[in-house]
Design goal:
It is built from 8 helices and 20 strands. The protein has 350 residues and is of the alpha/beta class. The protein has 2 domains: 2-52 and 113-192 and 293-348, FAD/NAD(P)-binding domain; 75-107 and 196-286, Polyamine Oxidase, Chain A, domain 2. Helix 1 packs parallel to helix 8 (333-348) and helix 2 (60-68) packs across helix 8 (333-348). The protein binds flavin-adenine dinucleotide. Flavin-adenine dinucleotide binds at residues 8-14, 31-34, 39-41, 50-53, 132-133, 164-166, 169, 193-194, 197, 199, 284, 289-290, 322-323, 331-333, 335-336.
Length: 350
């Protein structure tokens, strides 16, 4: 079947781009490898296992998206003391706590609420899940896109294709004609933001740390969690959430890890931490539609991201538009929206 625009990937960038084209009267086709949309946005009963924080006062596209879709934010809880655990497991309490300006915001309903247009896009047949794109074959009047599904290979034809997946995953696709080796190397060198991280969410019956004067925020040199925050929802369901320290390949097996996490929270917040309702572990480095083996080495600091154009003859048919190729806020949710807006403008100008 022939489409004017095929979008590869239904993360925030793919959903936002499809939404922009749809409201302008077009009917793009979004091919998504996973059985769900959202990409790195992943929720569980309103808790976030992927991104959690937005800064709408600094991020204009997110502010506009939040307002357009009737979403609301609340401030990251940070009242109370900050705990610091040194390499020997000794706890140092900083009564002044952790203050950010502007404070990080969380979305009511979790970051999944940013995907509000996705159900309607799927109902109208625009988002097609379970189709992993493997190859792009350039033709005179467009691009043939080959997907692999449980039922075998399928061929799609688009006048234009927009790739919203991380650049390292783009480099793994088969391009015919092949991309120059230098371009392949450039794409492979762009780290996927947070792809090497494991996020841990520990649910409790109540946010007991708050009543004891702790913010729930902690930093640790010992681990397994390196950075921890309060993730209690506005409806009172309590949780702490954090990122594991150290490279993905050095991490403990999940069962040991859960025990080690609870022992660490006991050390930080006392005996009440020994009775979690549940411990969830989301290892993004093990997700083939987010991370590559190279992402197991976590970059030091935030990488410099910038727009990326494929060379001709590809550029006239294939655009890149995921967060890692955004003009600003690359790697962040804001970057995904900026990249999508850029691709929408370029497509509508053709
Ligand atoms: C643990 C974690 C915490 C984070 N915290 C924050 C935060 O607090 N604030 C913030 O702003 N950002 C945060 N981020 C980053 C944020 O999640 C991303 O910037 C954003 O979600 C990227 O959206 P995207 O659409 O560009 O890419 P993705 O979400 O990666 O979407 C790409 C899509 O392409 C699909 N795909 C991949 N390969 C194929 C293929 N071959 N064929 C078809 N489809 C394919 C994927 O399944 C996915 O749905 C975090 C990320 C993680 C993992």
């Amino acid at each position: 079947m022939r489409h004017a625009v095929i979008i590869v990937g239904a993360g925030l960038a793919g959903v936002a781009l499809a939404h922009a084209l749809h409201i302008a009267g077009h009917k793009p086709c979004v091919l998504e490898a996973r059985p769900r949309w959202g990409g790195r946005i992943l929720g569980m009963d309103g808790f976030d296992l992927g991104p959690s924080w937005v800064w709408p006062t600094l991020q204009p596209r997110l502010a506009a998206w939040i307002s357009a879709h009737g979403l609301s934010c609340y401030e990251q809880y940070s009242a109370g003391a900050l705990q610091f655990e040194d390499a020997g497991g000794r706890i140092h309490t900083h009564a002044a706590g952790i203050a950010q300006a502007p404070p990080s915001q969380r979305l009511a309903g979790g970051s999944e609420s940013l995907l509000t247009p996705a159900p309607a896009l799927q109902r109208t047949g625009m988002i097609i899940t379970g189709h992993a794109v493997r190859a792009l074959h350039l033709q005179n009047d467009g691009v043939e896109v080959i997907t692999h599904t449980a039922a075998g290979a399928q061929r799609w034809r688009g006048q234009h294709v927009v790739l919203t997946l991380p650049p390292r995953l783009i480099a793994a696709l088969e391009f015919m004609p092949a991309l120059p080796a230098t371009v392949h190397a450039q794409l492979t060198a762009i780290p996927t933001w947070m792809a090497g991280q494991t996020k841990v969410l520990v649910q409790y019956a109540a946010p007991f740390w708050r009543t004891e004067g702790y913010s729930g925020a902690a930093f640790s040199q010992r681990g397994p969690i390196g950075e921890l925050h309060d993730a209690t929802l506005p409806d009172g369901r309590a949780a702490l959430t954090g990122f594991l320290a150290g490279p993905a390949m050095q991490r403990a097996a999940p069962t040991d890890l859960r025990r080690e996490v609870v022992a660490q929270l006991h050390n930080l917040f006392g005996a009440a931490a020994m009775r979690p309702l549940a411990v969830h572990v989301q290892d993004w480095a093990a997700e083939p539609f987010t991370a590559t083996p190279a992402d197991r080495t976590v970059p030091r600091g935030h990488p410099h991201y910038a727009p990326f154009k494929l060379p001709e003859p590809w550029h006239q048919r294939v655009l890149l538009a995921g967060s890692e190729v955004a003009p600003e806020f690359g790697g962040y949710l804001e970057g995904a929206l900026q990249a999508a807006a850029g691709a929408a403008a370029a497509l509508m100008a053709t």
